[in-house]
Amino acid sequence: xxxxxxxxxxxxxxxxxxxxxxxxxxxxxxxxxxxxxxxxxxxxxxxxxxxxxxxxxxxxxxxxxxxxxxxxxxxxxxxxxxxxxxxxxxxxxxxxxxxxxxxxxxxxxxxxxxxxxxxxxxxxxxxxxxxxxxxxxxxxxxxxxxxxxxxxxxxxxxxxxxxxxxxxxxxxxxxxxxxxxxxxxxxxxxxxxxxxxxxxxxxxxxxxxxxxxxxxxxxxxxxxxxxxxxxxxxxxxxxxxxxxxxxxxxxxxxxxxxxxxxxxxxxxxxxxxxxxxxxxxxxxxxxxxxxxxxxxxxxxxxxxxxxxxxxxxxxxxxxxxxxxxxxxxxxxxxxxxxxxxxxxxxxxxxx
Length: 351
Known about the structure:
alpha/beta, 13 strands, about 20% strand
């Protein structure tokens, strides 16, 4: 970041003059000669107090920049054919200074099986029970989930190498459930709460975007699909809560159950409904248990994603809005989002 110190007083513009404007102009030209791309504040000349505020505003960007240079993304499994939103050319990641370590689903199974009997599993299961509280509706499942968490963290520690930070992008269905005996969503939510996002469906750029958001805010972030529309009858019924938003300003943000508990209202462990229909024929859930579900907590929200295009150009979107205090009447980690002119944003930015 480049900023300049303004002249302090009109009483000493002979010996005390700093040529603030002139110095900043020369500095900007200097940066261009050396192919640097510094952040320059909107009003880059100020008093000591004003420049201090500029530095404070720049800290989130600095955390992101430093965090990316020390980041390693671990992935397990191939990206699924029909989830084109998870398309992930990896070359732009290396351009950012990010390391990528791709692994197979067999590797994931191997580390899970080898974690069995690890003494840390009991403590992790107890911690899960404390976090879930009344939402611990499948206590018999916690040991398996704890084993999976312990396995991921051991792999993380063993393979971080020269990097300092890491995130995961893991294949989570349909084969996963048959071999592991659960869905990994709750574990994903727990690691995201600790600043180690775990995206589903090998969504490498999703994990990267979660990580960037966590670096910027120093708060847990979550991966949510811009999923479905809000029906008109629901809009009419909630008119007092919708206020001045148009129906085209609204969307439902959804994911299976990977959202940190701190981002939801009254979260509890459930089962993945879609997978249950496909893998267990809609019968009593067994291998499809393990989501963390609830309504996304109402309040201000920023949606953001960094993504490589098919021709390996990095693009991103960002928008500000709020999560409304409206019952989404559906499953998963879900909420009714309101973003002014979302319809136009969807058409001209996202599409």
